[in-house]
Structures are given as C-alpha cells and as structure tokens.
Specification:
Layout (H helix, E strand, L loop, with lengths): L6 E4 L4 E4 L5 E2 L4 H15 L3 E11 L3 H13 L3 E8 L3 H13 L4 E4 L2 H8 L3
Parallel strand pairs: 2-4, 3-4, 4-5, 5-6
Antiparallel strand pairs: 1-2
Helix pairs in contact: 2-3
Length: 122
C-alpha cells in the first residue's frame, strides 16, 4: 500500500519533513504539499528543508520529473532529501538539475549528516 501522508515539524535551524515508510510521490499531490511546506517555512522564516524517508515509491515519467522540478523551484526553498527510493539515478539527477537551475536548490543524500552540512545546519 502506497501512502502519501507526511509530517512537517520545526527544528531549530530547518524545517523537517518526515515521510512514512511506503510513501508515494504522486505528482497531482505535490502542489498542495509544496504549498503547505512553503507556508510553514514562511511562517517560521526558514528556507532550509530536510526531507527524510524510507522506502519511497516514485512512479513518475520523465516529463513528470521535469514538472516536479519546476514546481519545487517555484517555492524557492533549499531542500536536502535523505531517503531510500526506487527512482532511477537519471530521474534523481534530472530533478536536482531542473529545480536547482530554476532557483530551488535540491540535493539527494545517503546520510543525514551530509544533508545537514549542505544545508548549513546542525
């Protein structure tokens, strides 16, 4: 069963998004999620986000990955992602490139410490 719920919490230097096991990235749900995340970040005046998850399912076509990158860039957040997912390396790289080239720095990491270092938080 693929789930699309997640939690957002305020940390001292960043906003944390925790995805449950078996989270599913569903393109039609991303605008609402990004809008909510942007509103939280704006409220606490913090543009740094850490997304953490395990066993994330990504069933997006290449054009969907491109569209998602554009949507992520529109919220102008610095996003570090630490999760195990089933997206291809090419899709991961495309998402990072599209978002970052449009003003929404995004990177995937295998370790939380590396992600926090990139965000400049502890």
């Amino acid at each position: 069963m693929v789930r699309s719920d997640y939690t957002i919490s305020i940390q001292p230097e960043y906003v944390l998004v925790e995805r449950p096991e078996d989270y599913g990235v569903i393109l039609r749900e991303m605008p609402a999620m990004l809008s909510r995340l942007s509103a939280v970040c704006e409220e606490v005046e913090c543009r740094k986000v850490l997304i953490r998850g395990s066993k994330t399912h990504v069933d997006l076509e290449t054009l969907d990955v491109f569209d998602l990158g554009e949507q992520i860039a529109e919220v102008h957040l610095q996003i570090a992602v630490v999760e195990h997912h089933d997206a291809s390396d090419e899709d991961e790289s495309l998402l990072e490139t599209v978002a970052s080239n449009r003003g929404g720095p995004l990177r995937f990491f295998s370790a939380e410490k590396e992600a926090k270092d990139w965000l400049g938080v502890s």
